[in-house]
């Protein structure tokens, strides 16, 4: 069972992860537009597309494990546990380091707003 504070944090975190996916999807659409308008070569477009899709795959991977991770966090330091666990997950799965950097920024953002809500 997850206490109320952790439950709120988890909901916000999941929303932030989905927001990241939406942002990256927008970047994919932008890259497609650049390619369609001959601003990017096929090589540049495909290279960027692979990186962006790998980032989405990493974030989706985190979304797939996040509920189980939170259930396993028993200490008051669950935010630190989360950050450590996600860093290990990204490294273990071989996702781009940008995934962890983006996640780390979201964790800091939640920390900054959690007192407001």
Q: Key terms for this structure?
A:
117 residues; mainly alpha
**Secondary-structure element order, N to C:** HHHH
Indicate the low-confidence ranges by residue numbers: none
Class based on secondary structure composition and strand pairing: mainly alpha
Averaging pLDDT over every residue, what do you get? 91
Domain count, please report it: 1
The percentage helix is: over 70%
Our Rg estimate from Cα atoms comes to 16 Å
Q: Kindly estimate the percentage of residues that lie in beta strands according to DSSP.
A: under 5%
Q: How far apart are the first and last residues' alpha carbons, in Å? A: 22 Å
Outline: elongated
Helical stretch count? 4
Q: Major β-sheet, in short? A: none
Total number of beta strands: 0
Short description:
This protein has 117 residues and is mainly alpha-helical.
Verbal overview:
The chain is an all-alpha fold. It has one domain. The protein is 83% helix and 0% strand. It is built from four helices and no strands. α1 packs antiparallel against α2.
Helices and strands in order:
Layout: H1 4-36, H2 42-72, H3 78-93, H4 97-113
Helix pairs in contact: 1-2, 1-4, 2-3, 3-4
